[in-house]
Amino acid sequence: MAITLTAEKNTLQIKDLHASVEGKDVLKGVNLTLRSGEVHALMGPNGSGKSTLSAIVMGHPKYAVEKGDILFNGESILSWTPEKRALAGLFLAFQYPAEVPGVSVANFLRTAYNQLQPKERQLPVFKFASLLDEKMKELLIPSHFAERYLNDGFSGGEKKRCEILQMAILKPKIALMDETDSGLDVDALRIVAEGTNRLVQQTGLGVLLVTHYPRILQYVKPHFVHLFVNGRIVKTGGMELAEEVERTGYGQLEAAPTPASNAPAEKATKKTKAKQPA
Amino acid sequence: MENIQLKKKLSGEYQYGFHDDVQNVYQTEKGLDENVVRQISKIKKEPEWMLQRRLDALKLFQSKPMPKWGADLSHIDFDDIIYYASATKKAFETWDDVPEKMKQTFDRLGIPEAEQKFLAGVGAQYDSEVIYHKIREDLERQGVVFLDMDSGLREHEELVKKYFGTVIPSSDNKFAALNTAVWSGGSFLYVPKGVHVEVPLQAYFRINTKNMGQFERTLIIAEPGSSVHYQEGCSAPVYTTDALHSAVVEIIALEGSRVQYTTIQNWSNDVYNLVTKRAKAYKDATVFWLDGNIGSKVTMKYPAVLLMEPGARGEVVSVALAGKGQHQDAGAKIFHLASDTSSLITNKSISHDGGRTTYRGKVYVSPTATNVKSNVECDALILDEKSASDTVPYMEIQSDDVSISHEASVSKLDSEKLFYLQSRGLSEEKAKQLLVQGFIEPFVKQLPMEYAVELNRLVDLEMEGSVG
What we know:
The complex is a heterodimer.
Chain A: E1 12-21, E2 24-34, E3 39-43, H1 50-58, E4 64-72, E5 75-76, H2 82-88, E6 90-93, E7 100-104, H3 105-116, H4 125-138, E8 149-150, H5 156-170, E9 174-178, H6 186-203, E10 206-211, E11 224-229, E12 232-237, H7 239-248, H8 251-254
Chain B: H1 2-10, E1 26-27, H2 34-43, H3 48-63, E2 85-86, H4 100-109, H5 111-118, E3 121-126, E4 129-135, H6 137-141, E5 145-148, H7 149-155, H8 157-163, H9 174-182, E6 187-191, E7 201-206, E8 217-222, E9 227-235, E10 243-245, E11 248-253, E12 258-266, E13 271-281, E14 286-293, E15 298-301, E16 304-307, E17 313-322, E18 327-336, E19 342-351, E20 356-365, E21 372-382, E22 388-397, E23 402-412, H10 415-422, H11 428-444, H12 449-463
């Protein structure tokens, strides 16, 4: 058994994680360590559970963790609310961000930003507006965007860009990017990728890039590539793994043998159950 | 200061629930009979015709049964109510003339500050008598009259006699009859032909006497081609026994005029708020009711517009928030009595912590009215399992040439939205507040800035501690 001797700064560890939704097993023993400044790509076919993994790390109340643990800087976060995880520095870029009519992007982001800051660093309306303006320029987002209602009537590409904008403003330590590349044209993809790279380089952001297609990996270079099939990681490597997926698809990989370290656990025992929705 | 108020609010104390030790100069005995009505009229030195109106209305009040179709009113004890109390004999000209005790009350309500910044005039009603009334001088020069209703009757008797009770006759309903019998205070607003009042006129109403019913009577007359926006905000101290507020508001919008009437009702949670509000809109006139119901124990209020002549338009945009022990039974009524008329009803209601909201609305189109357009949209948001919402829309369409749309939705708080906001670091409570703010945004964005800020703050405070 590995013992964490010293908590590495801004490190996310997923240990033998088993989870279910409505009685159905969705994660079947996931192991992953993600450090500050690292980019991990998590690739897998549709329905493999890779999006579920990022939702569970963020604390989605729909899922029940049956076994295993998630540690941030050595501390288990399983009992934490989503907001506590966010305050600690986790961020989930949603594949399908919720629409919140009536709440402007600017109002929402200022609320969220100030929530994450100590009192003396909270920004009043005008100061926040200039910060927002600066970040929107970096992502080539037109300024009227700030006054639109959050994700309400946004195109797919606008929603994704809005997620990256939020990430740029909230400056998390670890970002889980759930299929951020899907539905983006090449130009938008490049903007999103550049925005992500900037944060990795400037703030030491650690990224778990959940994706179906290898395309985005041309723009955001991963240090590790994990193949995720049927609720667990079946293979880990570098870019060559992504290239293999590009050539052969997921079909062959799904039949690949399970690595010993991820040996399936016996009948999962209930350990922690996430808070159920109200 | 802020913190103390917040703490009080969090501990369930009503923010404006302080009670001043002001001695009432005149006060009638509990209960209602002919003597009480005569006494009120005598104190006010009213003309004989008004006394007669009051007495006729009293008979109607006594003969009409309690309405049974709406909220539960069975706990109202008409014999346990003081129908008239006045803390002062006259209205004050300037703020300096107002007694210190009352001033403190208004200071706590923030009225003088508000006046400096936003208001053209303030009519602050302290129990029955309006104690402070001022209107900006340039409006006076334009001939705009903004008085308490008693002064309005004294100084503009002919206008009052011409219009009083023409929009809402005392026979209309039990509470309109009650109001007509015992009315006191309220606002009288007259806007001459072609005059546009650019800034909102505002009145605050306040109940201070225990078991005091408040029966203000407001009459707004907009002459042809004029426009005005009238606002009222309400608060009452907390008492353990139930207080009754039963106002009547009549608006006459003559040809080509525009009248907006904005209310944010924040009575404390022991008040029965049973109000009749109705407007007549003549040729090409527009009447816009903007109605927010946050407080009270029971509210029954359905602002109405009678579209009398072609080109008239009526809009009722309302929001209701019902928490523990509250029932907000509110909506709108539009009567299309002429061709080429249009109307819009938008209702947003939120129930939480065991509260109940009802949307009750009516759209009527007369057989002779053609080219009529009406849009009704009511959305209810229910925040928890303990709370409830009903929608009771009536449509009576007797003409073929109409375009009517009705949309209703009832939604629960979306757990995906909640998770999305929480994942950005917002607490569950903050996330709910934001979702509710977003839900009522179509209402809030139509409010003047200071009302919008105040409403959002009130809603946030009402919502605080509701997560559990």
